[in-house]
Amino acid sequence: xxxxxxxxxxxxxxxxxxxxxxxxxxxxxxxxxxxxxxxxxxxxxxxxxxxxxxxxxxxxxxxxxxxxxxxxxxxxxxxxxxxxxxxxxxxxxxxxxxxxxxxxxxxxxxxxxxxxxxxxxxxxxxxxxxxxxxxxxxxxxxxxxxxxxxxxxxxxxxxxxxxxxxxxxxxxxxxxxxxxxxxxxxxxxxxxxxxxxxxxxxxxxxxxxxxxxxxxxxxxxxxxxxxxxxxxxxxxxxxxxxxxxxxxxxxxxxxxxxxxxxxx
Length: 264
Ligand code: HEM
Description:
Number of strands: 2
Number of domains: 1
Strand order of the largest sheet: 1-2
Shape: globular
Bound molecules: protoporphyrin IX containing FE
Largest sheet: 2 strands, antiparallel
């Protein structure tokens, strides 16, 4: 039997012309590994930064309201941290339309959005467990009144504000569940974008939800004295109006640029 000539691994003669040399394979593999590592590191850093912002904000709110009962301070500060993360998620989009150099903040939206959702879920759980105690009646603002020996609606507005919160949290869950590249590929870019644009619905719902608790719920009432006004009232108004102004300016600017680019 004729002895087959052993081919050296570096010989190119027997390799199909379009196949890269094995060294190139190795290089490619190591480049892919390096870039996978770099991507994983960036994602980890962004998640760590987003969760650190959430925790720092929650801590600031927690320490700023020493007079409230600890349970209440906790669910309020987690809700406030969630709100700040939601606003942080909504800033890069319109900002990049006005100042294109800030477009590098756009990739942060996913991690900020994910942690907004996580804080919102924790806030919801704390309220359902601590305030409503898993009772639908309490969640809707009804309390058992021993003098009447029945449930009566004690807090007009409370139930509606909670329902608004629940609507927001349901949309949040849908966005959380689809905040992956896998979901983006499965749904297709257009459907995915359509779904994720509902973050603006969440924004308006949460704006109403928070405004109720900051401005209406603790106002003078027939059955209790109101606590001192919450310091967050005016920062909340400034942040919200600032964000709406940013979105409106970006919208007007987009129309202006479109008109400028359109052929005369
Ligand atoms: C996306 C979801 C949600 C966000 C971002 C959110 C955010 C907030 C914010 C910012 C506050 C005001 C905290 C303050 O007074 O400083 C708040 C209060 C409150 N939220 Fe939510 N919320 C959400 C969902 C819900 C849901 C689903 C419920 C009901 C199950 C709920 C019930 C409450 C209650 C009862 C308060 C008043 C707490 C108190 O004054 O002690 N929230 N929420």
